[in-house]
Specification:
Blueprint (H helix, E strand, L loop, with lengths): L11 H9 L8 E6 L2 E6 L5 E4 L2 H14 L3
Antiparallel strand pairs: 1-2, 2-3
Length: about 70
């Protein structure tokens, strides 16, 4: 399996459990298709965008997490 930096490809149950237990932190970001565009959002609840393609959603998610307080 190629290492593309996605935990979801390796251990989906553990990944989803960690998101559920994040307590408002940036524990996970999602980019999913929705009505002809993509919606990207974060488990922190403070970030959500609509974009034209998944790559842009991923790029913006990376920017969001780099700016999030640690």
């Amino acid at each position: 399996m190629a290492d593309d930096g996605s935990t979801l490809h390796e251990k989906p149950l553990e990944f989803l459990t960690s998101i559920a237990d994040s307590g408002g932190d940036c524990g996970g970001q999602v980019v999913r298709p929705e009505d002809g565009h993509f919606r990207a959002w974060c488990t922190c609840g403070n970030w959500s965008v609509e974009v034209d393609d998944a790559e842009e959603g991923l790029r913006l998610a990376r920017i969001h997490t780099s700016q999030a307080p640690h």
